[in-house]
Amino acid sequence: MKAIQFDAPGGPDVLYIGEYEAPQPGPGQVLVHIAATALNRADLIQRRGKYPVPAGQSPLLGLEMAGTVIETGTDVTDFEIGDNVCALMNGGGYAQLAVVDQEMLLRLPGNLSFTKAAAIPEVFLTAYQALHFIADLQKGEQVLIHAGGSGVGTAAIQLCRLAGATPIVTASGGKHERLKEIGAAHCIDYKKENFAERVKEITDGQGVNVLLDFVGGSYFAQNLDALALEGRMVCLGFLGGFNVAALNLAPILRKRLRIEGTTLRARSQAYKYELTAGFRRDCWPAFVDRKLRAVVDTIYDWEEVDDAHRYMESNANLGKIVLTIGE
Ligand SMILES: NC(=O)c1ccc[n+]([C@@H]2O[C@H](COP(=O)([O-])OP(=O)(O)OC[C@H]3O[C@@H](n4cnc5c(N)ncnc54)[C@H](OP(=O)(O)O)[C@@H]3O)[C@@H](O)[C@H]2O)c1
After folding, report:
1. CA-proximal residue: ligand 1, atom 5 (nearest)
2. One domain for residues 75 and 201
3. What is the DSSP letter of 303?
4. What is the structure's pLDDT at 138?
5. In angstroms, what is the span from residue 314 Cα to ligand 1's centroid?
6. Sign of CA dihedral 81, 119, 305, 58
7. Nearest to 163, CA basis, from 117, 104, 196, 209
8. Which of the ends of the chain has fewer CB neighbours closer than 10 A, N or C?
9. Atom of ligand 1 nearest to the CA of 40
10. Pocket residues for ligand 1 (CB within 6 Å)?
C-alpha cells in the first residue's frame, strides 16, 4: 500500500507518499480501505518529532479515518465486507489501508459522506470524553470552550447544545459569526477582551460550571477566575505554553474547583472501547438526523498534505481539515 511518511522530523516539506507494508487484520479486527482521513494538532507535533508514538502503535500519522471494510479477521461479529465505517485510530490514518478493532468502528449512515465522517472521530470523541466522562456535564449548565474554532471546539459546542447546556467560546473575531451558526451562545474575542470578565458579565457574576482549556499556562489564572463554585476544568492542550507565572491558588479551595488533565491516544484500548460505545449510544443517532454535524473547513487531496499542514499551522481553519486518500 501507499502511505504518507517522513524520514526525519521537520516542517511540512518532509512529508511524502511512498510504499509501506500493508497491515493484516488479526482476530476481532477489520481491514479498511481508507477514503479520507483528517488532520489533528497532534499530527503537526508528531511530524516535528515532539510526540513520541505510544509503544506498539503505528508510527504513521493519522488518528482517524473513514472508508470501507474489505476484509474481516476471525471473531468479527458485527461488521462485514462492504460496510462503510469511520473510527478513531492510534495512528496510521494517512494511508490507503488500516486495521481497526471492531469495537472502535462507527457504521456510517447513508447521509454521511466519507469526507464528513473522517472529520468526526477524534474531535467528537475528545469533546465527548471531556464533557461527559470527565466533567459530568449537566443540563442547564454553562460551559466555556477555549479555541472554539478548533476541530475539538466546534464538536464541543454542538455536544453542549445536545446536552441542553450553554456554550460560550473564545476565538479570534473573524470566526464568531460561523461559531454562532454552529451553536455558540456567546463568542469572546480573546485577542481584544479579558475573557474572565466577559464570562462574569454573561453569567451574571456566577462563572461557568465547566471549562475546556486547550491554551494552558497563559490562561490558567483567568480560567480559575472564570469558573463558578464547584466548577470543573478539563485541561486538553497547551497551545499557549506549559508554564504559569505567580499564581494565587486560593480560588481552587474557595470555589471547590476540580481540575483534571486528559489525553486520548495514550489511553488503553479498553478505555477507548468504552468511550466509543458511549458515543455510539449517546451521540451517533444525532448525526443521522443532523442535530450533530461534522464541521469541515477544507478538503485537500493527500498529495497536498504539506499544504494542509501549513494551513493548520496558520490557525486559519474553523473546524476540520480533511485529506482524501488517493489510489
Ligand atoms: N488531550 C487530548 O486528549 C486532546 C485530543 C485532541 C486534541 N487536543 C488538543 O486540542 C487542541 C485543538 O486541537 P484541534 O486539532 O481541534 O486544533 P485546530 O483545529 O488546529 O484549531 C486550533 C485553534 O486554536 C486557536 N489557537 C491556536 N493557538 C492559540 C493560542 N495560543 N491561544 C488561543 N487560541 C489559540 C486557533 O484559533 P483562533 O483563530 O481562534 O486563534 C486555532 O485555529 C490542541 O491543543 C490539541 O492538542 C487534545
Report:
1. 126
2. no
3. G
4. 98
5. 11
6. negative
7. 209
8. C
9. 15
10. 40-42, 122-123, 126, 147, 149-152, 171-172, 175, 190, 214-215, 236-237, 239-240, 262-264, 312, 315, 317
What is the domain count for the chain? 2
C-alpha cell, 38: 483528517
* pLDDT at res. 159: 98
Do 149 and 230 reside in the same domain of the chain?
Answer: yes
Q: Give the end-to-end CA distance of the chain in Å, rounded to a whole number.
A: 9
pTM for this entry: 0.96
Q: What is the CATH number of the domain that holds 216?
A: 3.40.50.720
What's the pLDDT score for residue 246?
87
pLDDT along the chain (327 residues), means of 10: 97 98 96 98 96 90 98 96 97 98 96 96 98 98 97 97 98 97 98 97 98 94 97 95 91 98 94 98 94 97 98 96 95
What is the pLDDT, as a whole number, of residue 225? 97
Whether residues 111 and 134 fall in one domain? no
Distance 59 CA to ligand 1 centre (A): 22
Q: How far is the CA of 40 from the centre of ligand 1 (A)?
A: 9
Q: Which of 220, 240, 261 is the last residue before a domain boundary?
A: 261
Q: Which amino acid is at 176?
A: H
The C-alpha atoms of residue 139 and residue 129 are separated, in whole angstroms, by 16
Q: Which domain holds residue 60?
A: 2-120+265-324
Listed in sequence order, the residues at least 6 apart from 250 whose beta carbon sits closer than 8 Å to its beta carbon are: none
Q: Which of 89, 126, 152 to mutate to test the pocket of ligand 1 (most atoms within 8 A of CB)?
A: 152
